[in-house]
Design goal:
By secondary structure, the protein is α/β, with parallel strands linked by helices. It has one domain. Helix content is about 55%, strand content about 15%. It contains 7 helices and 10 strands. A 4-stranded antiparallel β-sheet has the order 4-7-6-5, sandwiched between helices. A hairpin with a 4-residue loop joins strand 5 and strand 6. The longest helix is centred in the first third of the chain and has 31 residues. It starts with a helix and ends with a helix. The N terminus is likely disordered. It binds heme C (HEC). Heme C binds next to helix 2, helix 3, strand 4, helix 5 and strand 7. This is Tll0287-like domain-containing protein.
């Protein structure tokens, strides 16, 4: 009897191993294969960024301003009660990524920047002139930094981009128009190909960066002393003095972007 029980137990453990363990191991090793070219991954994350940035600019900054909400480059200062401008939202994402384990670099530059620190230099400045003409992405290997680099046009996709830049006291150009290539996002990664896992890690690092900076904005709002605090929940500024929670915000980003990204991940795998 004892022997039979032992056999039964053994049989089931083998079953468990062959049903759960082995396929798991198979997908593990498949995950180690180099499946994505770096250019492809940088293009994917840049698409996620386009959607996030447009959503933030139009639905939060654009609509929020109509409700009297303020957005400022000095939003982090104690005496300024405001949210981050779109470019600073992006910089927030970039610095959150930098603090994490994924070696992904992100930078927003221009040839006529508001902030002199954002002026393209060297090879990136040359390539940006091309991007301005054909709006096509540029990919190259940066020998000095030893980084694979991709640059994507950053278009004036909302009226808010144009008005704010043209009127800014430090602007170096006052005639931006809707649809202009105002700058480019530069993305960098050290390796020429990524496993499936590394690819997902890049996309997750970007999404986490978005949540981090958005939460920092909501924290700032909670600390408002003199300004009216928008109600944080599942409503958007379009409906009144409201701000979506980080979860609601990220959910919208995912709805708008992930279908394309998913399709990409599935096909390439
Ligand atoms: C309310 C004002 C405001 C709005 C709206 C705005 N920007 Fe900016 N933008 C700025 C400021 C200020 C900076 C500089 C931030 C910094 O210190 O890096 C900046 C930086 C940039 C840069 C980096 C180069 C530079 O000028 O320093 C680009 C490119 C850019 N913005 C494009 C856009 C686009 C495209 C949009 C719309 C999707 C947009 N901006 C919306 C104010 C604004």
């Amino acid at each position: 009897m004892k022997v039979v029980t032992t056999y039964i137990i053994l049989f089931f453990s083998v079953l468990i191993v062959s049903c759960g363990g082995v396929p798991e191991e198979k997908s593990e090793s498949a995950g180690e294969e180099k499946v994505f070219a770096v250019d492809e991954v940088l293009e994917m994350v840049s698409k996620e960024n386009d959607v996030t940035r447009t959503l933030y600019t139009k639905a939060i900054v654009g609509k929020g301003k109509l409700q009297g909400m303020k957005f400022d480059e000095d939003w982090r200062k104690d005496d300024v009660e405001a949210g981050p401008l779109p470019a600073l939202f992006l910089r927030g994402v970039a610095s959150s990524i930098r603090k994490g384990p994924v070696p992904l670099g992100l930078y927003l530059g221009s040839d006529f920047p508001v902030n002199a620190a954002n002026k393209f230099e060297g090879k990136q400045a040359d390539l940006f002139q091309k991007i301005k003409k054909d709006q096509k992405p540029e990919f190259f290997y940066d020998e000095e930094q030893k980084l694979h680099t991709a640059m994507f046009a950053d278009l004036a996709s909302a009226d808010a981009c144009v008005t704010c830049h043209n009127k800014h006291p430090q602007t170096t150009k006052t005639d931006w128009k809707l649809g202009d290539v105002m700058g480019a996002t530069t993305w960098q990664y050290p390796k020429d190909s990524l496993t499936y896992k590394e690819t997902v890690a890049v996309l997750n690092a970007y999404a986490k960066g978005t949540v981090d900076i958005y939460m920092a904005y909501l924290d700032e709002v909670e600390d408002f002393k003199t300004s009216e605090k928008p109600e944080i929940g599942n409503k958007w500024p379009e409906e009144g003095k409201y701000l979506p929670t980080a979860e609601v915000f990220l959910d919208s980003v995912k709805k708008l972007s992930s279908y394309e990204t998913m399709k990409h991940l599935m096909v390439s795998k």
